[in-house]
Design a protein that fits this description.
It is a single chain. The protein is mostly helical and 145 residues long. The chain is built from 5 helices and 2 strands. A hairpin with a 4-residue loop joins strand 1 and strand 2. Helix 1 runs antiparallel to helix 2, helix 2 runs antiparallel to helix 3 and helix 2 packs across helix 4. The longest helix has 25 residues.
């Protein structure tokens, strides 16, 4: 019955995404890609309900109506991929030593006396400026959809 909870949760997430897409001006291509995976997940949970539970004929019919194939837009996927890929190396993961020393990721340029090391914040600083990491060579190949 967890699949039913997942179905309801996806509806709420979709509503929140739509509401916030106007506030944060998310472009159409990105929104389409988000909803592509939401439709895939929603269909998978509906199928799980059909296959895993004893349902009445009416329930089966409703679950069958929930199964949809998302629209594939390769050009839109490419544009969304390019906009996300452009953000590579803008943000980096926390340094594992920060977790060992108990240093908050929101602390900037702090010292750990125990390990005699100096740490810099690895995520966004308080004023919103992203930290930069030395660029590494990465492939620009797009993943398949």
């Amino acid at each position: 019955m967890l699949a039913v909870g997942e179905l309801f949760t996806l509806i709420v997430y979709a509503q929140l995404i739509l509401e916030n897409s106007r506030i944060y001006t998310i472009d159409k291509d990105m929104l389409e890609q988000i909803f592509t995976f939401l439709v895939k997940d929603y269909s998978a949970f509906a199928l799980q309900m059909i296959l895993s539970h004893e349902n009445s004929a009416a329930q089966e019919e409703i679950f069958h109506k929930m199964i949809k194939k998302p629209v594939r837009d390769k050009e839109g996927f490419g544009r969304a991929w390019d906009s996300v890929y452009a953000l590579r190396d803008e943000y980096i993961m926390n340094d594992p030593a920060q977790k060992i020393c108990g240093i908050s990721s929101f602390t900037k340029n702090v010292s750990c006396k125990k390990h005699k090391r100096r740490f810099s914040k690895s995520l966004r600083s308080i004023n919103g400026t992203p930290s930069r990491r030395k660029k590494q060579h990465r492939s620009t190949d797009r993943p398949s959809e």
